[in-house]
Design brief:
This protein is 58% helix and 15% strand. Helix 3 packs parallel to helix 5, helix 7 packs across helix 16 and helix 8 packs antiparallel against helix 14. The protein has 16 helices and 8 strands. By secondary structure, the protein is α+β, with helices and mostly antiparallel strands. A hairpin with a 2-residue loop joins strand 2 and strand 3.
Length: 453
Amino acid sequence: MTAKKTFPKSLSILLAVLLPGLGHISQRRIKGGIYTFVGFGTALAVVAWFGKPAWYSIPAVLWLWNIWDVINFPKKVTALFPVILWLAMAYAIGGKVTDFNIKALFENASRSKEMVQQMFELDFTQPKAERLKGYVDIQCPCSDNPPIPDNTVDGLRVYVDQLCSMTNDTITLHGEGFWPDYAVKLYWQNPIGGTAMQADLTTDNQGTFDFTWDVDPVVQSTAQDPTVPQIHRIYAEQSRPIGGIELSRVGGYILQGIYETIALAFLSTIIGALAAIPFGFLAARNLMTGNPITAVIYVIMRTILNFVRSIEALIMAIIFVIIVGLGPFPGMIAITIHTTAALGKLYSEVIEGIDPGPIEAIRATGANWFQVVRYAVIPQIVPSFTALTIYRWDINVRSSTIIGFVGGGGIGFFLWQWIVLQDFRAVGTAFVAIAVVVIILDFFSARIRERLV
């Protein structure tokens, strides 16, 4: 055996000066050279991007350490110092870029305490009550010919001086036929049923009220195009207890949102799983690399699955909200597509991990591709496919709660509006409802997976 040829130390030092890591490579320390080059290069790139000249001292020190390490070879120099230095730089610059400020959590302690206290005052039920509820429709923004609303219901009349309104305008709201000297809750409902503004007042001794309201831009927050006139609705509601318990208005919205969330996740999982099955077979290496044609199909399928899977469902939901409008449907489309790609990849890996013996035995009989799949593959994959589908159902339930933040329906849609309105009682109630539903679904799905796997 001949010893590996190395460069003279003086040349290695020169190479280390010219390019960190190159001196290590000349000394046959390939892995160390790569690590040194990557560490120095990333440090230099981060500092150059950050744009603060003082921070160039970090890559300069790493460059000097690189030279020192080459000079001391073959004596070992610990790499702990450059690693710690690099991590300290990443932490410090990362903290400045993200405006890391732990004190901000405590600077407004009274407000934080108040918000947390409100979140623990759950608003799911309320004393049973009789109600008077009137409403008036109003166009926002204005068109050339706004409609004239018919707003008298069961003797209650709610009307505004203006037939339409622009955001930041002031409107005057009137009500007649309500209980005298009693509290009234007003809330502005956008075209898709969300509460955009709310206010409290009291009627006079004749059961009437007059209220001046500034139209907040939040009323247009769910509009695809804020310049297109839409019909909004302003409700005026009175209630007084008559004994017993019933769902509150927030509780009703939460039940509706939870139902939409579960239905959205269920449909997305079922449709996505069915669509993923053929992709799983076509993306399985052990089934598709038998001849050049199927090998090309395998590469194409793998590429498609990896590409689609890399795009978060939330981003897809934003796109489909623009295409088909607000509501659960765009959210379902987004989660279905992501589910198809994710399960397709997982299914293919399950198929690749099955026992090859039955496949070879079936092929030896002269069976075609479909017969091999039917008799050698499917019996081995059904339990794993079912378990993965149930696991994906768990993921989709969680995803469905977030999809609503971009207009994709479900409980997230209501939660986003309550956060905007700073109705933290409703926010806390929604958190509890989501947690309870997820825990229950996790419990049952875990039991099912235990029986299958």
